[in-house]
């Protein structure tokens, strides 16, 4: 308790508060622009922190991280272009709500769900860091294999009207994820002699192409004047609505905390898992994907619940939880902070000051988010024939800026054509995205398990965690298939 109080006193300085707030402001802007990822923003800001004291430097990067994860929902809802990969699931219901003139309700729910989930995640970092970190250490390749198998069952929840088409879409995503070098044998797969494909297909160009560019193609393929965009952002979210969906938000937050604490997963997985669980338990399950606000709440609580939890293995074990925390790990080392088990004893004041900053960042996120919602909601009044070219420019700019590669832009356009064709045959794009994200992790942990066990396949059925996920996978498939033919409520 003494270190906790000293940490609060250490954090409460003008420099620390300004660093955190400035980082969140940058995160909101970067996260809302399609293609400009949070990882890129943190990597670009890292050199500017070299001359700063350790605490404000880390708080600046934490602010970018947390606000960026939330802000991806803004463009996902308004223009069907997820600002970050974590917001890909938000598109499923956020964009239909915007088309129905309910963009303000969707953005309000995304903000409030994000803030609640962020606070729950931060609270877990303060109270349960050691416990959750020790749980995460028990995950080996077989446990990861069944965790991803469980996550893949989300396909049943987002496959649309046809489960068969959803499975085809997911299989195509898994196939696309195998493009590139085989990490075990070092041989190229499905590259067809194209040098640029040896590194595999980039996730962000595929994401932007499937959703944003496909929607642009869809717009220009319509008959003139057939479909008009809503001229209003609609009414704000009511308190009663938020209160009704609070259980969904809290459940998604817990899912995000658990997934975030396991290294190598990430917010996209947590978002889809939270969405699938919300759909499974909802009385309006068939409305998901057609503009259901509970879907937005589930998606945003899932991905933001990861934000604080990913710092648990970083601080407690010295193990980065995802790509973003890997970059932040470098920032810690640059400023003389050595994450790991001894950090809480050797530099306790710094750690608890950082945790206090992370806890209070939820308040800053709420304030900046309200400002962002009011500002970006005005884009709903922009005529579509003006908005769509601007969106395309942002998509091209964001995609090119990732690797400074025109090939990535071509991948984005190709994914846009694919997304457009899939929409014409009523095949959902979300399963493809899930297969693309989870496919490499699934394959990698399968092969690692077999190699470690020296060909003994019984390793996939040993240990309590393994059996927990086997049961969860079976139950998820059963409930998912039973929910497929529920009529849509009007």
Task: Provide tags for this entry.
globular; two-stranded antiparallel ribbon; 1% strand; 490 residues; mainly alpha; disordered C terminus
Explain the overall architecture.
With 490 residues, the chain is mostly helical. It has one domain (2-482). Helices cover 70% and strands 1% of the residues. The chain has a two-stranded antiparallel sheet with strand order 1-2. Helix 4 runs parallel beside helix 19 (348-376), helix 6 (103-127) packs across helix 13 and helix 11 runs antiparallel to helix 20. The longest helix is centred in the C-terminal third of the chain and has 29 residues, at 348-376. It starts with a helix and ends in an 8-residue tail after the last helix.
Number of strands: 2
**Helix vs. strand class:** mainly alpha
Order of adjacent strands in the largest pleated sheet: 1-2
Please describe the biggest sheet, giving its number of strands, its sense, and whether it closes into a barrel.
Answer: 2 strands, antiparallel
Mean pLDDT, all residues:
84
Summary, kept brief:
With 490 residues, this protein is mainly alpha-helical. The protein has 23 helices and two strands.
């Amino acid at each position: 308790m003494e270190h906790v109080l000293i940490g609060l006193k250490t954090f409460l300085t003008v420099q620390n508060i300004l660093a955190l707030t400035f980082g969140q402001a940058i995160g909101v802007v970067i996260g809302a622009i399609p293609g400009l990822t949070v990882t890129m923003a943190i990597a670009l800001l890292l050199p500017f922190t070299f001359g700063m004291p350790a605490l404000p430097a880390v708080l600046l990067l934490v602010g970018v991280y947390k606000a960026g994860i939330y802000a991806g929902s803004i463009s996902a809802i308004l223009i069907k272009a997820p600002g970050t990969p974590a917001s890909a699931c938000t598109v499923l219901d956020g964009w239909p709500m915007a088309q129905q003139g309910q963009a303000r309700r969707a953005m309000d729910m995304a903000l409030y769900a994000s803030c609640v989930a962020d606070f729950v995640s931060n609270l877990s970092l303060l109270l349960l860091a050691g416990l959750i970190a020790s749980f995460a250490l028990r995950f080996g390749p077989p446990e990861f294999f069944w965790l991803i198998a469980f996550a893949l069952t989300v396909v049943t929840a987002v496959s649309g009207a046809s489960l068969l088409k959803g499975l085809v879409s997911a299989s195509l995503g898994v196939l696309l994820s195998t493009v590139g070098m085989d990490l075990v044998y070092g041989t190229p797969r499905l590259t067809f002699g194209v040098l640029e494909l040896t590194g595999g297909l980039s996730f962000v160009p595929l994401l932007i192409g499937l959703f944003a560019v496909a929607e642009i193609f869809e717009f220009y393929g319509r008959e003139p004047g057939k479909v008009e965009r809503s001229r209003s952002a609609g009414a704000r979210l009511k308190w009663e609505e938020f209160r009704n969906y609070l259980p969904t938000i809290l459940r998604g937050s817990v899912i995000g905390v658990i997934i975030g604490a396991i290294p190598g997963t990430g917010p996209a997985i947590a978002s889809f898992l939270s969405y699938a669980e919300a759909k499974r338990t909802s009385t309006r399950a068939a409305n998901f994907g057609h503009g259901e606000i509970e879907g937005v709440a589930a998606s945003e609580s899932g991905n933001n619940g990861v934000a604080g939890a990913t710092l648990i293995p970083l601080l407690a074990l010295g193990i980065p939880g995802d790509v973003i925390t890997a970059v932040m790990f470098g920032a810690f080392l640059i400023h003389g902070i050595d994450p790991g088990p001894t950090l809480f004893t050797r530099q306790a004041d710094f750690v608890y000051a950082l945790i206090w900053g992370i806890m209070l960042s939820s308040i800053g996120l709420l304030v900046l988010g309200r400002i962002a919602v009011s500002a970006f909601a005005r884009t709903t009044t922009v005529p579509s024939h003006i908005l769509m070219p601007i969106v395309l420019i942002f998509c091209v700019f964001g995609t090119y800026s990732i690797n400074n590669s025109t090939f990535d832009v071509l991948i984005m356009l190709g994914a846009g054509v694919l997304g457009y064709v899939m929409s014409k045959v009523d095949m959902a794009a979300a399963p493809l995205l899930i297969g693309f994200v989870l496919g490499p992790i699934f394959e990698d942990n399968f092969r690692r398990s077999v190699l470690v066990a020296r060909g003994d396949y019984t390793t996939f059925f040993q240990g309590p965690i393994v059996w927990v996920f086997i049961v969860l996978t079976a139950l998820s498939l059963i409930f998912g298939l039973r929910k497929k033919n529920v009529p849509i409520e009007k």
